[in-house]
Design goal:
By secondary structure, the chain is of the alpha/beta class. The chain has 24 helices and 16 strands. The radius of gyration is 28 Å and the shape is globular.
C-alpha cells in the first residue's frame, strides 16, 4: 500500500518515492503496532496526518489514504479534492466501499476537475488490528465513551436494554472484520461454535458471507482456492468462535508472565507501554527538583528479548534482564580498558606490543558500537519496565493474589483465607480484592447466599464497589455452564529465593516476593480448542454447531462434521473481549504439540483486548442495571 499498491522490490526500498500518509483513527490503530515512525520514513512517508485534522496543501506530492469508507470520511476526501491538497490520490479503504459511496467520490472528482489525480482505489480488507504474528483484535479498547469504538464490547452485547437491531449491527461489524481476516489469510475455514449465544449469531452470518463470496466466481476473494477441489481438503483451518461467558474468571486473574503483567499493571496498549518515571531537574542556583515524566516504550516483535521472554514468569524476566545488564557492562568495561591501553605511548617495548594487539581488538569493538548502543537502549527499556512491574508487585502483593487464585482454580488448599486477604489493608487495591472474590465465586467451593452477603459486607467495609459482584451473582443463576469442571490442574509451587537475584549488586531487590513456578494447565478456551482440533468427544463440545462455507449447499447445522481428521491450524475467536492470559495459554499449548505430525498452529483473536480493570468497569455498569 505504501508503495502505491505495487509489490516492493530492492530498488523501491533503496529509493522510496516521497509521499504523505493520511489515515483516520482506525487506520492509525491498525498501522501503529506494525510500523514505527522510522520504518514509515524508510518507506518514503515524510508526513503522516489524521484525515480530520486541518491540513495544508502540499504541491507535487502524492497522498496515500488509509481510511474506513464512512460517510464522514468520504465527505472529507471530497473536500480534499476541492481544496486541491495533493498532486495525486491513492485511496485505500480499510473495508469494502459501497457502490453508492464510490459514485459520491466520482461525482466530487468530476466537479472539482480531479479525475486524473485520483490514481488508484483499493479495498484492502484490513479491518482488524494485528498485535502479534498469531494474535489480533477487532477494536482498540478506548476508555472514551465513543459509540463507534464501544459498539462491540461485552457491556454493549449483554446490557439489558439492548435492541435487536443493535445486536444485528454489532454482529455484522464483527463478521465484516472476521471476513477481512480470512481474506488476508486467503483461506476459507471450517467453523464451530456453541449454541444459543452471540458466538452462534456470528458463525451463522460469517458462514453466509463466505458462502456468498465463494459462489460469486467472478468476484470471489478466494479465487486462488478452487471450490470444487478444495471441498474435501484436510488442510483447511478450523475457526472456533466462543462467547466471553464461557469463562469469566480468567479475565480477572492476577497474572505472573511479563506480557500479561504489563497489560494488567502498566496498561499496555497497541504494543506500547507508558511509565511514569522520576527525573531530577537541575535549575541554576537552586537545589535539584524531582519531577515526574512519562516515558513511552514500544514492546514489539523486533525486540529479541521481548520475543523470548514475554511469556516467561516475572522472576525469570528479572534474572534475564540482570544477566543482560552484566553482559553489557562487561563489554563496556572491555572497550574502556582498550581505550586506556591505547592512550599509553612512549613506554617500554612491552606496552607498545600490548597497544598493537589492542588496536585490532579496539577496531572490532568500535565496529560493534551501534550494536552495543542498541543493546543498551533495550536493556534500559526492559530494566525500567521490570522495575515498574516490581514496584507494583510489592505494593499490591500481586504474588499472593496470583498464588491464591491459582489454588482456587486448581481446587487446592489455601495458605491464607479469602477473608483474611480482603481484610488486610496492605494486600492490594480495592479492585484486586473484588477480582479475587469474583474468582472465588466462580471457581471456588459453593458458597451460600448468606456467606456471599457476609463477604460483600467485608468488601464494602474495605471500600470496594460491589456492582460487578451483583452482576456475577445474577450471571451464575442463569448460566448453564458447569463452572467448577471448567478449571482443573494448574496450581503453583514456591521455589526458595530467587537463584541469582540475592546479590546486593542486583538491580532488582526481590525480598518479600515469592518465586512461584506455575504448573502447566489448559484454560477453558484451550480445552475446547483441543477437543475440536483433535476431533475428540467431550461434553463441552459435542453439541457445537458445524459450518462448512465451501459445501455448495448449506446443510442442516446438525449434520455430522465431514472432516474427521485432526486439524493442524486453528483460530480461536472470543466475542466480548479477550486477554493476554488466554493468548499465552494457547501459545504454551502449541509449544507442547511442537514437532512431528501433531504440530499445531493457533491464532487468537477477540473483539477487544481488555485487562482486568477495563473488564471490571464493564461488569460494574451491567451490575447497576436493575
Amino acid at each position: 500500500m505504501l508503495n502505491f499498491n505495487i509489490p516492493l522490490t530492492k530498488t523501491s526500498l533503496s529509493e522510496p518515492q516521497w509521499k504523505v500518509l493520511v489515515y483516520d483513527h482506525w487506520g492509525q490503530d491498525i498501522i501503529s503496532p506494525l510500523l514505527s515512525v522510522r520504518e514509515l520514513r524508510e518507506l518514503g512517508v515524510t508526513l503522516h496526518l489524521l484525515l480530520d485534522s486541518d491540513r495544508e496543501p502540499i504541491q507535487d506530492v502524492p497522498a496515500v489514504y488509509f481510511v474506513r469508507p464512512t460517510d464522514d470520511n468520504v465527505k472529507r476526501i471530497c473536500k480534499d479534492f476541492h481544496s486541491q491538497l495533493y498532486e495525486s490520490y491513492y485511496m485505500n479503504f480499510i473495508s469494502a466501499i459501497s457502490r453508492q459511496k464510490l459514485e459520491d467520490l466520482a461525482l466530487a472528482a468530476i466537479q472539482t476537475n480531479s479525475v486524473t489525480q485520483v490514481t488508484k482505489i483499493f479495498d484492502q480488507y484490513l479491518n482488524f488490528i494485528s498485535l502479534e504474528d498469531d494474535m489480533f483484535c477487532l477494536r482498540h479498547h478506548s476508555d472514551v465513551a465513543d459509540s463507534s469504538k464501544e459498539s462491540i464490547s461485552y457491556y454493549s452485547i449483554n446490557r439489558g436494554d439492548v435492541k435487536d437491531t443493535e445486536i444485528e449491527r454489532m454482529m455484522d461489524n464483527i463478521v465484516e472484520s472476521l471476513f477481512c481476516v480470512f481474506v488476508t489469510l486467503g483461506q476459507v475455514p471450517i467453523i464451530r461454535c456453541p449454541r444459543n449465544n452471540a458466538a452462534e449469531m456470528v458463525a451463522e452470518k460469517l458462514d453466509k458471507k463466505l458462502r456468498d463470496n465463494i459462489r460469486d466466481t467472478r468476484n470471489s476473494l478466494f479465487a486462488g482456492e478452487n471450490v470444487q477441489s478444495g471441498q474435501f481438503s484436510f488442510q483447511r483451518p478450523l475457526l472456533v468462535i466462543l462467547d466471553r461467558n464461557i469463562d469469566l474468571a480468567t479475565p480477572f486473574h492476577h497474572t505472573w508472565t511479563y506480557q500479561a503483567l504489563s497489560h494488567d499493571v502498566l496498561q499496555l496498549k497497541l504494543n506500547r507501554v507508558e511509565i511514569e518515571e522520576k527525573v531530577q531537574v537541575n535549575a541554576p542556583g537552586r537545589a535539584p527538583v524531582e519531577k515526574k515524566k512519562v516515558r513511552s516504550y514500544d514492546l514489539n516483535p523486533t525486540d529479541g528479548f521481548w520475543e523470548e521472554h514475554k511469556g516467561s514468569p516475572f522472576p525469570t524476566v528479572a534474572e534475564a534482564v540482570q544477566e543482560k545488564l552484566d553482559a553489557y557492562k562487561a563489554q563496556e568495561d572491555e572497550v574502556k580498558r582498550l581505550k586506556t591501553a591505547m592512550g599509553l605511548e612512549g613506554e617500554d617495548d612491552e606496552t607498545i606490543s600490548m597497544v598493537s594487539d589492542n588496536t585490532a581488538r579496539l577496531t572490532s569493538a568500535v565496529s560493534s558500537l551501534p550494536e552495543l548502543l542498541e543493546m543498551k537502549r533495550l536493556i534500559d527499556m526492559h530494566t525500567n519496565v521490570a522495575t515498574a512491574l516490581l514496584e507494583q508487585i510489592k505494593a499490591r502483593m500481586l504474588d499472593l493474589y496470583f498464588e491464591t487464585e491459582e489454588r482456587l482454580m486448581s481446587r487446592t488448599t489455601l495458605d491464607k483465607s479469602i477473608l483474611d486477604i480482603i481484610r488486610d489493608p496492605e494486600a492490594g487495591t480495592v479492585e484486586d480484592k473484588v477480582r479475587l472474590f469474583i474468582i472465588n465465586l466462580i471457581c471456588g467451593p459453593p458458597v451460600s447466599d448468606a456467606e456471599i452477603d457476609q463477604y460483600c459486607s467485608v468488601l464494602q467495609d474495605a471500600g470496594c464497589n460491589l456492582s460487578a459482584i451483583q452482576y456475577i451473582r445474577r450471571w451464575k443463576t442463569y448460566s448453564k455452564l458447569p463452572m467448577s469442571s471448567a478449571y482443573s490442574g494448574g496450581g503453583t509451587k514456591t521455589v526458595g529465593m530467587f537463584s541469582k537475584l540475592v546479590s546486593t549488586a542486583s538491580q532488582f531487590a526481590m525480598e518479600g516476593v515469592k518465586n512461584l513456578v506455575v504448573k502447566k494447565h489448559n484454560l477453558p478456551v484451550t480445552k475446547v480448542l483441543d477437543s475440536l482440533m483433535d476431533m475428540k468427544s467431550s461434553s463441552e463440545t459435542d453439541d457445537f454447531r458445524y459450518f462448512d462455507p465451501k459445501l455448495l449447499r448449506a446443510t442442516d447445522s446438525n449434520s455430522i462434521p465431514r472432516n474427521r481428521s485432526p486439524f493442524q491450524e486453528a483460530m480461536v475467536f472470543v466475542v466480548g473481549g479477550g486477554n493476554y492470559i488466554e493468548y499465552q495459554n494457547l501459545v504454551e499449548y502449541c509449544k507442547g504439540k511442537a514437532g512431528g505430525a501433531n504440530a499445531k498452529r493457533v491464532i487468537y483473536g477477540c473483539t477487544e483486548l481488555l485487562n482486568a480493570s477495563q473488564f471490571l468497569k464493564q461488569l460494574e455498569k451491567l451490575g447497576l442495571e436493575s
